[in-house]
Amino acid sequence: MMLETPTDRRKRRTHTAVLDAARSLFLEHGYRSTTIEMLAGTADVAVSSIYANFAGGKADVYAALAWHTTTTHVDEMKGSTSIVDAFDRYVTFHRKNPLALRLLSLYDVATTESELVALAKPRIDAALQALVETVTRDITASGCDTDPRVLVLTTWAAVNGAVSLRQRG
């Protein structure tokens, strides 16, 4: 069981294809309506290959996709030079990743559904907390005249609210 992309070339190819298929199918059909067979067909892999890479099935795929989304988010936010830059990066990330809010909160799965989901939750929480601290530190270094942590959290909350409203139509 692992959240990271495998180093073995064949496993990495399957892992990446399944996560790409999951992102597309979860966005189009939702997590609950997406089946393992749909994932296998879209990823062009055998169902057995999915279980070989994600022993807990669809819940493990969701957890791995959530972790991948988390690490991408952290990477894309690094080096923010101002609150405006952080805001732009945050909005850009969420526009490119419309499932991000659901994935980062593990909204569609429970930690009881798989060991990998239970492992992913504290890792995602810690990574996002560290991201808030990093962006706060970067903004502080740029000479912000307001409490940078409050500014970062308020800005992100506003964006999250706007994204949620947009997704609800």
Structure description:
- The protein is an all-alpha fold.
- The protein has helices at 9-29, 36-43, 47-53, 58-77, 83-96, 100-104, 115-141, 148-168.
- The mean pLDDT is 91.
Please report the distance between the alpha carbons of the first and last residues.
37 Å
Helix content: over 70%
Radius of gyration in whole Å, from Cα?
Answer: 17 Å
Instruction: Give start-end ranges of low-pLDDT stretches.
Output: none
How much beta, percentage-wise?
under 5%
Shape: elongated
Helices and strands: which structural class? Answer: mainly alpha
- How many helices? The count is 8
Q: State mean pLDDT (0 to 100 scale).
A: 91
N-to-C order of helices and strands: HHHHHHHH
> What is the tally of beta strands?
0
Main β sheet profile: none
